[in-house]
Amino acid sequence: MKLTRALRIFAAMKTNVSIPIFLCVASAIAITSVTGAALGQPVTKDEDRYAACMDMADRSPDKGINLALAWIADGGGVPARHCEAYGLARMGEHAEAAARFLKIAEDMRIGRDMPIRMGQRVVASAPMLADMYGQAANAWLLAGEIVRAEDAIDLALTLAPKNSSQEYELVLDRARIAAADEDFQLALTDLDYVLKGDPGRKDILVLVAAAARGVADFMRANQALADFQAVFPNQASGYLELGNLRHAEGDKEAARQAWLKVLLLEDEGPNADAARANIERMDLTVEEKKAS
Fold first, then answer.
1. 57: which of 87, 125, 126, 131 fits an S-S bond (Cβ 3.0–4.6 Å)?
2. 3 state SS of 22
3. What domain range is 238 assigned to?
4. Are the beta carbons of 205 and 173 closer than 8 angstroms?
């Protein structure tokens, strides 16, 4: 079994010894295209252009943005603007991207700048709007704008169908936002809601472990992490959380070994960066104690 979503987002949380830990599970920006397929219409040249623009924005954000701007000037409307916003997000301009996602959602709601199908301008459905607000929430989170992220995700959840896969993904987004705000109880409640509705989501058990650790429920954290690692034995995020958990329990040597395992599995990326930072902070704390 593979993790169902890319390992991109890392939301900082703190332990009582100020060792930052990172939840490295799930995509930062879930992209849903405003295409003919999504609208139940035949795919057109505009959909092909949108797909090409999004692909370029993913591989080379600056080039993707240039394509989007040229398309906007050519009357590309919401699809072109969405490609531009995604490119900005990929470049790390998260606040700017979030503001654009919100404006796009407002226009989608009334059909402004939307594609024309069968002689009528498309008006976005509730799930399409929910997805766009969810993208804005994730971008605000990455920009460190927690309150704005909370507002956007709450709006998204009012639009998503109940007990749908979309709702579950948005609830997971809310859990990550809550964790970034150090509201681990809310994060754990949201994660439990998703697991109840979709018990097969073994990929989020590492998040459950982190949230349970955040509320000092070490028994739950250990069980969730063991279940995660049984399915994903060589996943770096599992060993990162194992180190975080062992450190919280006071076993610093076990924490170090777990973080070193992360570096054996991945030599770069958010998991590796977090593991290195944790080891460095722990070593610095030891040196400071020796010097005092």
1. 87
2. strand
3. 234-291
4. no
